[in-house]
Design brief:
With 480 residues, the chain is α+β, with helices and mostly antiparallel strands. It contains 17 helices and 16 strands.
């Protein structure tokens, strides 16, 4: 027997039947006698639907994944060159049953031949599919966790914006900018609900937001997704605007909105308006988008409610709640500005201090509720009779102060007399009892040495004179 014949038959045992070879095959061992075209097929390949004939008649490169083909080519080049004692690669192959599986291939050339350099090639295959799928699930979970972290961060930033800003327009702008980081949109808007419809008060993504501000949308309207969202107090997604929202109004004609999402803005159980998102792609918004949008809608609603409460608080500070005219706080602020303006322009500033005559007797006779009604009606008459340029405020108790800019003493007297007659001629529901007022007037051109307080003292002195001289009259400071 020649040496070649001996080599050819030296590994015949690999292809025979024995418990050892069967065990090795079950563990993933394989052998490929390329020179004699004999193959020991492991159990992995059999489980994938391949036998010795399949492996003999097709190349590994033909069934590997296109993305892994370069790996397999590199593996074969290494096998042929013999530069490495052990060859190892991880790649995907397509099973006979139509599934892609991951395999770790470790092999080595035992003998070499003169054809392509490989005689006997043996190795071990390991199925890594479950491991790779677990890695992919972990990767997706990591991506999802990172996305959720980003979403939470944007919501927290939106909450921070709300807590640090009382400017509702700025807050809406910044919240919508944060929302775009996790809810892609082409246009987004905030609309306030009025009795006769919705009004756009802020937005993002518009070519000219100033032109869109103030735009109105009908509410309620049959078939309107906006109406549906507000009435049912829940988010609404429109996957095909042309089909499902035929009454959709585009703030800009160039806007080819395909998808729309509307979320009601609710604070303390009251619907304040609507937050809407538009996208050019049909069927774009998902359940997750809707959940995120609801979070941003909460922040927008809080911003609107904060602004409303701030406005209400400001109004309470600046307006007398009972009489509906300016408060003393308002008078101190605006009065100082009017005094400084008169000083700078060197113009006359007149002030009238008004007091209701015998008002304590009215409270004692008719009760404080009736007294409050009298004060409320006098406040209405103050608003009715005063000029736009005048400042009128409740100075304290039943005292009212008028500030007349660029008004000389004669005009101030004329205005005050008209008001005195208006009050005395009005019916306050006191069984015919009339209400009268006393007025003290002071006027002058402010200078550096004086102050509004000085002018008020002079008017108050004239008021004291009016009361001392019989009430229901007007006195001017400094008159004989």
């Amino acid at each position: 027997m020649s040496k070649n014949d001996a080599d050819d038959h030296s590994h015949d045992f690999l292809y025979g039947k024995s418990p050892l070879i069967d065990a090795m095959a079950r563990l993933g061992f394989f052998a490929y006698d390329m020179e004699n075209q004999r193959i020991l097929c492991n159990e992995l390949w059999r489980s994938w639907g391949y036998d010795e004939n399949d492996m003999r008649n097709q190349r590994l490169r033909d069934i590997c994944h296109p993305d892994d083909r370069e790996k397999v080519e590199r593996l074969f080049r290494s096998m042929q060159s013999g530069t490495q004692a052990m060859n190892q690669e991880i790649f995907r192959i397509h099973t006979a049953r139509g599934r892609w599986v991951w395999i770790r291939h470790c092999g080595m050339t035992v003998t070499r031949s003169g054809t392509d350099g490989i005689g006997l090639y043996v190795g071990l295959d390991t199925d890594l599919t479950d491991l790779k799928e677990s890695e992919e699930r972990l990767r997706l979970l990591t991506v999802q966790s990172e996305l959720h972290a980003k979403e939470m961060e944007t919501l927290l930033k939106a909450a921070s914006i709300v807590s640090s800003s009382l400017d509702v327009n700025e807050a809406v702008k910044l919240i919508l900018e944060q929302a775009k980081l996790v809810i892609p949109y082409d246009k987004a808007s905030v609309q306030i609900l009025h009795n006769d419809g919705l009004e756009l008060i802020g937005g993002n993504g518009f070519e000219d937001i100033s032109a869109a501000i103030g735009m109105r949308f009908p509410y309620p309207e049959k078939g309107s997704m906006s109406t549906l969202a507000i009435d049912e107090r829940k988010p609404v997604v429109c996957r095909d605007v042309a089909k499902d929202f035929p009454g959709f109004i585009r703030p800009e004609q160039s806007n080819l909105t395909r998808s729309w999402m509307g979320i009601p803005l609710v604070a303390h159980g009251n619907v304040l308006g609507l937050l809407s998102f538009n996208h050019l792609q049909e069927a774009y918004y998902t359940e997750r988008h809707m959940q995120l949008a609801s979070g941003f809608a909460v922040q927008v609603a809080i911003a609107l409610e904060n602004a409303r409460l701030h406005e209400k608080t400001y109004k309470l500070a600046m307006e007398d709640a009972l009489m509906g005219i300016g408060s003393r706080h308002l008078f101190n602020i605006q009065g100082a500005l009017m005094y400084e303006n008169a000083r700078r322009k060197k113009t006359v500033l007149s002030v009238a201090m008004v007091d209701l005559d015998h008002f304590k007797a009215i409270n004692d006779t008719y009760g404080h509720d009736t007294g409050d009604c009298v004060l409320k009606e006098i406040g209405r008459l103050c608003r009715q009779d005063s000029r736009v340029t005048d400042l009128v405020a409740r100075y304290g108790g039943e005292e009212i102060v008028f500030l007349f800019p660029e008004t000389n003493i004669q005009t101030a007297m004329m205005i005050s007399e008209r008001f005195r007659q208006l009050i005395s001629g009005s019916d306050f529901g006191l069984s015919g009892r009339a209400i009268t007022i006393s007025t003290g007037i002071a006027a002058g051109i402010p200078d550096q040495a004086g102050s509004l307080a000085d002018l008020l003292k002079r008017a108050d002195s004239a008021l004291y004179t009016a009361k001392k001289n019989g009430r229901n009259r007007i006195e001017v400071y400094g008159s004989a």
